[in-house]
Hints:
Elements: H1 2-21, E1 24-37, E2 42-55, E3 60-66, E4 71-72, H2 75-85, E5 93-100, E6 112-124, E7 127-140, E8 143-153, E9 172-180, E10 182-183
Antiparallel strand pairs: 1-2, 1-9, 1-10, 2-3, 2-4, 3-5, 5-6, 6-7, 7-8, 8-9
Amino acid sequence: MKKRVIGLTSVWVLLSVLVTAQDKFFTKNGKISFVSKGNIETITAKHKGITAVVDSKSGAVQFAVLMKGFEFAKALMQEHFNENYVESDKYPKADFKGQVTNNSEVNYAQDGSYNAKVKGTLTIHGVSKEVEVPGKITVKSGKPQLNADFNILLSDYNIKIPAVVKENISNTVTITVDCALEPLKN
């Protein structure tokens, strides 16, 4: 009888851990890119190492990206980005903390594609702004994939464009997020 109680207790504890773990999803290899289309030049950069966490139960979402991880087509652009614009030594990361406001419409347990509305605080260059971003959550085999495209204004984050290159760099930057998440293991 004692062995049976211990066995049932062990199964219950294991199931509790599995259920809890499947509420949260995580990646360290999310992708983000941005495009700035100036009158003379289009500047693009990609990053393949953003960290993202989603709590499917509450709808809480969090992203973090190290600014020095952005890769540009030209090394000089990357140097100017880090030193002159986002000041990566002073402000090493950007992050977003928010909420899927229509989380009840997303069924994380069933394959499908769901429109998502995400609202939260985006911090870049030491400046935090409230943003609302439309996105998509695609669930496949119990794993969510997050996708979003949205625009920000560099001036909203105190990122200054020198007058001499104002024609090259647009104040509007389009950001694309693509994160395939895995269940978070305890």
